[in-house]
Amino acid sequence: MDFKIIHIEETDSTNRWLKEHGEPLLCVVADYQTAGKGCGTNTWESERGKNLTFSVMIHPEEIPASGQFLISEAVSVALCRTLSPYIYNKVEIKWPNDIYVDDRKICGILIENRLQGPIIKDAVIGIGLNVNQTTFVSDAPNPVSLCQITGHEMNREALLDEFLKRLDEALHDETVPTDYRSRLYRRDGLFAYRDLEGLFRARLKDVLPDGRLLLTDEAGQDRTYAFKEVQFVI
């Protein structure tokens, strides 16, 4: 796929801009977002001109509406494959699609699928990748950037080009679901989580094809969660 890239100076949200002005295979990159969104009510802090804040629109004809979590898997894996050559530490996916290095968040993803019956009409993929920012002033608990990890600034345009290539590959790669699970943050060991009933410890057993998280607690009981139904305690 050949993406057309549009650079804009400022917008409230690249996802919103793309939904209003975009078309499949369009990527819009903003130097600054005044209201960058994460999933749910989360916001995204990004210093002007320092990071990559962009959205991509695709029309995934091969993926039915029932399999839309495949898009999340493909985007997450594509980002890991893009970043791994630059980072000595493991680049992992915190379910469902935050990108982590150790216990720190380097990238957030917001995917908005628009359905038309049994098919996905289009998918708008919003990404905030911390590249050259070195000071974070929001109350986000654990941000980190490529510059902080590597000790030097990175070429944002080159990173974007590499990601778009990796995304194209991942959307047609049958190994992506397996790769996604092999890169999961906390995939080995017993860790703390919190749900509506309170704090508990569990092992990450799997992510189901529909995107739900499957944990096994200390009593050996399986617990299944949709997004926002469980919190990783870090």
Give a brief outline of the structure.
This protein has 234 residues and is an alpha+beta fold.
Structural commentary:
Strand 4 (about 90-95) and strand 5 (about 100) form a beta hairpin. The protein has a 7-stranded mixed beta sheet, with helices on both faces. With about 230 residues, it is an alpha+beta fold. Helices cover about 20% and strands about 35% of the residues. It is globular.
Quickly list its features:
alpha+beta; five-stranded antiparallel sheet; seven-stranded mixed sheet; 234 residues; globular
Measured on Cα atoms, how large is the radius of gyration?
17 Å
Mean pLDDT, nearest integer? 92
Sum up the overall morphology in one term: globular
Biggest beta-sheet profile: 7 strands, mixed
Number of strands: 12
Per-chain topology:
Elements: E1 4-11, H1 14-21, E2 26-33, E3 52-58, H2 69-83, E4 91-94, E5 98-101, E6 104-116, E7 119-129, H3 146-150, H4 156-170, H5 176-182, E8 190-195, E9 198-207, E10 213-217, E11 222-225, E12 231-232
Parallel strand pairs: 1-2
Antiparallel strand pairs: 2-3, 3-7, 4-5, 5-6, 6-7, 8-9, 8-12, 9-10, 10-11
Helix pairs in contact: 2-4, 2-5
